[in-house]
Task: inverse folding
């Protein structure tokens, strides 16, 4: 839902970032307002996950230029945990396994950290148990997953559902979902997409990183961006995704070559 | 790993590092036959014990300090150590009201309140300060059940025949270099005796505190559980911060008769030295339990977090048929700490079983070795052992080693060994952080998850403590 007067949640200006002296982001510009759903597409290796990790504060990526403002303040100043507590959520493309740490306990600590920031009461084990069971319905997940270690031995699709469960618990303001659709079977895709739609409100915003129109059939984006060589090359409405589906990314190479920017 | 965040693990200031200012009676530095006699006469010991000490001393003179462990430290000058130091107070007081308030305050500060009003309701405590036991709580209540819990010095006076019957029967005075030294000069420690058929009605616990700077601590603990008896015992320890190293060479002997069970837990938090490895306790300990009777059970659980150097292998001699030995260990090293620890399971009796679960965590520039021996004698038909040794590395300068030795003379024995090493990865930490969990809490969540199997073995009151202790040890680990 586009409302020009809605709060500017995320304001990315000419963002540059490198990993081990290798530039990956080469001047990203993106504005996200409350109520909006953005889709970010682009070839493998174009920098989509890098953008999401820089926004979440991954220590391996060094910001070499530009700025990111989140609700008016400097996002890049903050530790990753502070970003999360303030409502920035990253659903990982490859969620890691954390053996020995119980999923339920992890979810509780994480959700309480966010609640504390919001001035809400922290939930004890009993109250949290009720709360999490209610939230499980958003992704139709089996409560048995709560008893296991975080992501350990989860199938690809189960890991992705666990990410959306976390999103449902953390009640984020800006959610960046990095290829949450890949690895999901057809039914799971509908369930997860349904969950994301259910969580979208006029107060929050979602950034969907995806390769497939399939997801965008379920979640209607307000904007579609195409990334190439570490920049956003083109922005359009939902029709841009449909066009990509037909034409592929060949035109992107030409455009990148003509602007002489980066190496695709 | 590229980030600075998982590097440069700096230890949290040690919160037990204070020194109690109290008048102490010390003997002159150095070790000789006269010193051994002096210690024995100060403690008004019977002849058998003096003879025991002198035999040990003479044997010690013939031994060389062991150097097979994966440890590096500069030579210890045994003539530069004080072998006896005691707070100046004539007799052990019958009532706590007469104990020097400074001592009570010290134990209060350590979280071990001894006074009637404040003491733990379900744990009896023997408090040992430098070389002597200053108080033992709940003695009378335990005595109603026939349980003896007192300092070993008192036991020598009040129950000499029991001490004579059991001392040195599990760890002979000539067992090894440090055991011989301990046998010659040991000052105090705890004595526990659980008579036939009695289940000890509360947890027993000894708290060791080294206070003097140049004193060695040589405590001796003896626990005997008669037929069908059972007891759970916990040992805790701390020391002030000095920039010199102090020697701690303890001996612990456990005896379990038919159907008896002894659970011995340790939370070791001696001063570990500073982040550059200056100061700290040298912890050279011989702990051994003997499952003498059929169906007896001895279980060691240890959480080792302190000391500059740890050399310690709590062991079980499984003599009685169907007896069971267990070893659950968490050893955490940080900064420049070195630990070489593990266990020995000696299977002598038929159908004896042992379980070893060891979790080593190394951070900073520390090194952490597991060394374990599983030995199956020809007579141990149907013996079984299961060992699991896991190492966790934090940062990229820490080291972990595993030395499992298996000697089986019993072809039918079932021996299973599993080992793993993992490193806390930057991506795992980032995952937790990106969910609002701070770096240190993320590390400690992963560490306590890693240790869960062992913490589950600790008495309930102490499991949470152990968890907190590890978190504290790793605090300040953000570079
Ligand atoms: N930690 C890293 N070390 C080295 N190279 C990296 C690192 N992270 C990203 N890169 C490189 O940066 C480029 C962009 O990677 P990124 O993961 O952002 O791509 P992506 O657009 O998400 O691709 P995909 O669609 O395949 O997920 C790739 O060439 C990748 O190899
Ligand atoms: Mg990606």
Result:
């Amino acid at each position: 839902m586009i409302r020009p007067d809605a709060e500017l949640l995320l304001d990315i200006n000419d963002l540059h970032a490198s990993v081990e002296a290798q530039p990956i982001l080469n001047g990203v510009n993106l504005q996200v307002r409350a109520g909006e759903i953005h889709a970010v597409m682009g070839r493998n290796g174009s920098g989509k996950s890098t953008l999401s990790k820089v926004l979440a504060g991954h220590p391996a990526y060094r910001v070499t230029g530009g700025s990111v403002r989140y609700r008016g303040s400097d996002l890049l100043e903050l530790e990753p945990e502070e970003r999360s507590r303030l409502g920035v959520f990253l659903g990982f493309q490859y969620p890691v396994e954390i053996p020995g740490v119980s999923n339920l306990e992890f979810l509780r600590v994480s959700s309480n950290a966010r609640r504390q920031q919001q001035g809400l009461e922290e939930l004890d084990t009993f109250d949290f148990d009720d709360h999490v069971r209610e939230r499980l319905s958003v992704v139709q997940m089996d409560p048995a997953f709560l008893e296991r270690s975080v992501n350990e031995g989860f199938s690809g699709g189960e890991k992705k559902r666990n990410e959306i469960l976390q999103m449902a618990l953390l009640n984020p303001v800006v959610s960046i979902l990095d290829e949450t659709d890949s690895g999901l079977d057809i039914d799971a895709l509908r369930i997860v997409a349904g969950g994301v739609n259910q969580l979208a409100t006029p107060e929050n915003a979602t950034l969907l990183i995806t390769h497939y129109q399939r997801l965008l059939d379920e979640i209607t984006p307000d904007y579609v961006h195409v990334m190439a060589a570490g920049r956003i090359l083109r922005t359009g409405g939902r029709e841009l995704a449909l066009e990509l589906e037909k034409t592929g990314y060949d035109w992107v190479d030409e455009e990148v070559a003509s602007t002489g920017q980066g190496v695709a | 790993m590229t980030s600075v965040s998982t590097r440069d693990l700096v230890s949290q200031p040690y919160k037990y590092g204070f020194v109690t200012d109290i008048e102490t009676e010390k003997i002159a530095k150095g070790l000789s036959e006269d010193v051994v006699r002096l210690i024995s006469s100060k403690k008004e010991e019977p002849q058998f014990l003096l003879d025991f000490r002198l035999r040990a001393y003479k044997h010690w003179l013939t031994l060389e300090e062991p150097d097979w462990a994966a440890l590096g430290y500069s030579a210890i000058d045994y003539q530069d150590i004080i072998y006896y130091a005691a707070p100046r107070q004539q007799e052990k007081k019958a009532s706590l009201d007469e104990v020097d308030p400074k001592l009570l305050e010290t134990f209060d500060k350590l979280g071990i309140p001894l006074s009637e009003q404040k003491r733990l309701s379900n744990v009896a405590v023997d408090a040992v300060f430098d070389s002597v036991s200053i108080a033992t709580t709940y003695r009378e209540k335990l005595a109603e059940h026939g349980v003896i819990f007192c300092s070993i010095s008192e036991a020598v006076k009040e129950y000499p025949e029991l001490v004579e019957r059991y001392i040195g029967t599990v760890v002979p005075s000539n067992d090894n270099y440090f055991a011989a030294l301990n046998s010659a000069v040991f000052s105090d420690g705890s004595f526990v005796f659980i008579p036939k058929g009695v289940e000890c009605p509360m947890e027993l616990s000894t708290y060791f505190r080294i206070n003097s700077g140049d004193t060695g601590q040589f405590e001796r603990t003896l626990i005997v559980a008669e037929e069908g008896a059972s007891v759970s015992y916990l040992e805790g320890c701390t020391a002030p911060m000095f920039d010199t190293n102090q020697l701690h060479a303890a001996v612990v002997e456990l005896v379990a008769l038919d159907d008896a069970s002894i659970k011995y837990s340790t939370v070791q938090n001696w001063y570990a030295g500073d982040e550059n490895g200056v100061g700290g306790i040298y912890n050279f300990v011989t702990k051994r339990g003997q499952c003498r009777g059929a169906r007896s059970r001895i279980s060691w659980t240890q959480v080792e977090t302190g000391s500059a150097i740890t050399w310690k292998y709590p062991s079980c001699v499984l003599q009685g048929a169907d007896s069971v030995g267990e070893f659950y260990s968490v050893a955490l090293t940080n900064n420049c700490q070195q630990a070489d620890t593990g266990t020995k399971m000696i299977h002598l009796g038929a159908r004896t079983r042992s379980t070893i679960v060891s979790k080593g965590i190394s951070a900073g520039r520390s090194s952490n070795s597991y060394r374990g021996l599983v030995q199956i004698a020809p007579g141990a038909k149907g013996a079984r052992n299961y060992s699991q040794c896991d190492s966790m590395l934090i940062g990229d300068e820490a080291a972990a080693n595993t030395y499992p030795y298996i000697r089986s003379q019993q072809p039918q024995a079932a021996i299973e060994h599993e080992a793993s090493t993992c490193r806390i990865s930057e991506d795992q930490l980032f995952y937790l952080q990106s969910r609002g969990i701070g770096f240190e809490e993320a590390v400690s969540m992963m560490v306590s998850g890693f240790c869960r199997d062992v913490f589950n073995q600790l008495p309930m009151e102490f499991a949470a403590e152990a968890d907190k202790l590890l978190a504290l040890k790793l605090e300040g680990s953000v570079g």
The first helix of chain A runs from residue 48 to 56. The mean pLDDT of chain A is 93. Residues 84 and 96 of chain A are 17 Å apart (CA to CA).
